[in-house]
C-alpha cells in the first residue's frame, strides 16, 4: 500500500541545488509529508515535514503543490556529505512507513 | 542538540540466545519506537510504546520480542531466542507526541548479527 512514489536514483553536482520529487496522489487532507534521509546504514535522519504550506529549515526546503499530490525536497547547496537515500513518507499512523527512497549521489 | 543513543553498536550472538538492545530516548520525549532494517531492505516498524504500554506493533513483533522501560531513561528491546533471520540493524526512535505532526528522531542503531 505504497503512498509515495520516488525516482530510485538521482545525481547532483556539488554546490548546486538538489531537487528531489515525490508523488503522493492519494494523500488525505490530514496526512503530513515527511522527509528523512539515511547515510550508509546510519539511523534515518529527520529533515523536514509539512502539511499544506511550504516549509524551510536549516537543512532544506519542502515545496508542496496546492493540490498536495506531490512535493519536492530542495537541498539548496548540495555537498558530498548529502549523498544518501532520501525517503518521502506520507504519515498515516504513528509509525513511519519507509519505502525504497531516492538514492542521491552528489558528485564533485 | 539532544540525541537518541543506542548500545551496543554491534552485537554478535548465537542462534537461540537472548539479546537485549538498549536505547536512551531524548529526555523530554514520551513516545518510543523500535524499527529494524535487514541488510539491503527497507526500514520496518516493529513497535511503539507509550506510558509503559505497547501502543502498536507490526506482525514482525511476535512473542519472541518484548519491550520495556526499566527506568526513567532507558528503553529496551529483548529478543528471547534469536534466529538467523533476526540479523539486522535495529533502530530506536522517540518523539514528543504520537500525533502525525510530530517528527521522530532515530538513534544510530545496533547491528545484530546472529550466527
What labels would you give this structure?
heterodimer, A: 108 residues, mainly beta, four-stranded antiparallel beta sheet, 9 strands, 0% helix, B: 115 residues, 50% strand
Tell me about this structure.
The complex is a heterodimer of chains A (108) and B (115). By secondary structure, chain A is mostly beta strands. Chain A is 0% helix and 46% strand. Chain A has strands at residues 9-13, 18-23, 32-38, 45-50, 55-56, 61-64, 70-75, 84-91, 102-107. Chain A has a five-stranded mixed sheet, with no helix packed on it. A four-stranded antiparallel sheet of chain A has the order 2-7-6-5, with no helix packed on it. The radius of gyration of chain A is 13 Å and the shape is globular. By secondary structure, chain B is mainly β. Chain B has no helices and eleven strands. In chain B, the strands form two sheets. In chain B, strands 2, 4, 5, 6, 9, 10 and 11 form a seven-stranded mixed sheet that branches. In chain B, strands 1-3-8-7 form a four-stranded antiparallel sheet, with no helix packed on it. Chain B is globular and about 40 Å long. The model of chain B has no long low-confidence stretch (mean pLDDT 95). Classes of the chains: A mainly beta (108), B mainly beta (115). Chains A and B meet through strand 3 and strand 4 of A and strand 4, strand 5, strand 9 and strand 10 of B.
